[in-house]
Structure of Pyridoxal 5'-phosphate synthase subunit PdxT:
Amino acid sequence: MLEAVNPTIGVLALQGDVREHMRALAECGAEPVPVRRAAELAAVDALVLPGGESTTISKLLEVFDLLEPLRQRLRDGMPAYGSCAGMILLASEVLDTRPDMQPLYGIDMTVRRNAFGRQVDSFETDLDYTGLDDGQVRAVFIRAPWVEKIGDGVEVLATVPSGPAAGRMVAVRQGNVMATSFHPEVTGDLRVHRLFVDTMVRPRAGV
């Protein structure tokens, strides 16, 4: 009997909370590896784009010659998940950012950078999350974006339940690409990562 092989999932390791995502992926049964080079990107089954500073990561993608290889892998159907800055990078259009910021076009959506305000406006709340039927997700928002607009084929997974931002889209999915405004990697709740690994990565990787 053949032993099951775990999928290899890269974490873009140019800047941001890389270790937290790698720890969560390992606990979900994946083999996490840092990705800084095109050859490393070519070797993974999927990629996580962590939180951090989106304009810095965008510039580093160009410095490390990763921008076009990453866009191509996304066009070819590679599963990907982005949290916070990762959501911004995966968008097709970004508002309130630098003019030289390079989107990846992973999800047909318009994202507003730092939509919830500055660092002092960071907050936590509980969200209903489509695909997770065992209770709400505790969501940590840190200088977070939100989704202003989505195209055809994009599914809304979670919205802000109350307050001034009630109804704002904070988790979306298009095919094998998912993005959240918040940081599930910092709470110890593995369900968002497990949803990505089990429903988007494993079926495509065949493991």
